[in-house]
Amino acid sequence: GLIMRTVMQMMLTAAVVVGSAQIGPTVILRDGVTMPSVGLGSSGGCHPDPDGTEHQCKGYNVSLQAMQLGYRAFHDALSYGNQAGLGAAVKASGIPRSELFLMSMVPKYLMGYNETKASVAASLVQLQLDYIDLVMVHHRAADVADWPRSVNSMKAFPDNWGGPGSPVNNGTQAQWLAPPCAATDPTWVLCQDETWKALTELKEAGKIRSIGTSNWQVSNLERMKTMGQELPSVNQIEQHVGWHDDEMIEWCAANKVVVQAATPLARSLPALVQVGGDPTVSAIAKKYSKSPAQVALRFLIEKGVAMIPSAASAAYQTENLDIFDFELTSDEVASLGRVAAPCRGNPADGLAKCWADPGDMMCGSADGRMFHCP
Predict the structure, then answer these.
(1) How do beta strands 168-170 and 173-176 pair?
(2) 125 φ, ψ (degrees, to nearest 5)
(3) Which residues contact 178 (CB under 8 A, 6 or more apart)?
(4) CA nearest 233: which of 212, 249, 218?
(5) Alpha-carbon span 53 to 46, nearest angstrom
């Protein structure tokens, strides 16, 4: 009886581990691709097209430094206009390409079937790669106020490439109008579907290993599921202590979609990165001899959320990776879940309101869960 009871306890313990949300240093995506749980957010400071001067770019030096410190996942996007720096760092690092996980995004002004194919082709040239590990759709839609949109000029897109007046290149800057699919269907659903079709084809062709979304809501993902579309491997959204969408996290876990936090430290919000900035975060940090930032990042790991914190200094880059040698208790996760952080601006009436969906208000519960307000 004692042996059977011990075996049962071991099985229960194993089941808890297997069923837990917590992730380790890597996570296996729904298509079998392995992704590091912590990547470096875009390091800015460069130009889109390689010209041999990349070693002078902040983005190049910050990325190369991170590679030397052990980072293997790097996030960038076509619309950031700086991909040449990351691509040159990859070449200079000497790290085998198969050991790196490189991410890019299709911008809203290049949504649509042909536009998406051109966007990925341009990213491959700018990054000097044969394939990209993960390409995400940067936004699900855009507001009328977003146009015209000014970004860095790119060789791949001369004047009027996307239609009359889109883009208009003026020196190093280019102004874009909304893509044709948005004019045809102002709800942007056509843009979403055409973009996704192009990405699935590029994945089949070996130009991309995994495909994902960014700033998608559960309703968008549910629609994809209902229509029988391939679900994204990753949905990148705002998630951090003070603003975490547990409805999204739970839906994605149930449907084998990895949530990736775009701003895991809320753009260096003092409550999350400064000792004494928030009493709950700081007390837990003191207990584990960790920094507040490490506790804030570990909170996401406990919830099964991957992340791409940005950091330029070697000290902060190292710190952000060093979050796998301690674990938070369930009570600590719940108490961090109750922290109310004003994302941008002030929370209205005690409700947390953030950039990912400016009209979206989040409500919290006593157990530390956060959800869309009823």
Answers:
(1) antiparallel
(2) -65, -45
(3) 108, 109, 142, 146, 147
(4) 212
(5) 9
Nearest to 254 by CA among 227, 223, 221: 221
Q: If you compute the radius of gyration of the chain from its CA atoms, what whole number of angstroms results? A: 21
Task: Provide mean pLDDT across the span 269-291.
Answer: 93
Give the single-character DSSP code of 303.
T
The bridge status of strand 352-353 relative to strand 306-307 is: unpaired
At a CB cut-off of 8 Å and minimum separation 6, what does 306 contact? 23, 27, 35, 36, 37, 38, 39, 234, 258, 259, 260, 261, 300
Tokens standing for 326? 């301690």
Residue bearing tokens 């200079």: 92
Distance, CA of 109 to CA of 94 (rounded, Å): 34
Q: What is the mean pLDDT of residues 48-68?
A: 97
Per-residue pLDDT tens digits for 180-191: 999 999 999 999
H or E segment and range at residue 126: helix 113-127
Cα gap 80→227, rounded to integer Å: 32
Task: Please tell me the distance from the alpha carbon of residue 24 to that of residue 195, in angstroms, as a whole number.
Answer: 31
Contact 269, 242 (CB under 8 A): yes
The CB-based long-range contact list for 162-167 (8 Å cut-off, 24+ gap) reads 162/109, 162/110, 162/115, 166/109, 167/109
3-state secondary structure of 135: strand
Side chain identity, residue 153: S
Distance CA 321, CA 65 (A): 13
Q: Residue 151 carries which DSSP code?
A: E
The one-letter code for the residue type at 51 is D
User: CA separation (Å) from 175 to 119, 146, 229, 257?
Assistant: 16, 11, 32, 34
- In angstroms, the CA 37 to CA 308 distance is 8
With 0.85 as the threshold, say if the pTM is over it: yes
pLDDT digits (tens, 9 = 90+) for 329-364: 999 999 999 987 655 444 444 444 555 454 566 777
- Does residue 351 sit in helix, strand or coil? strand
**Gap between the Cα atoms of 3 and 9, Å rounded:** 10
Tokens 């390091």: give the residue.
43
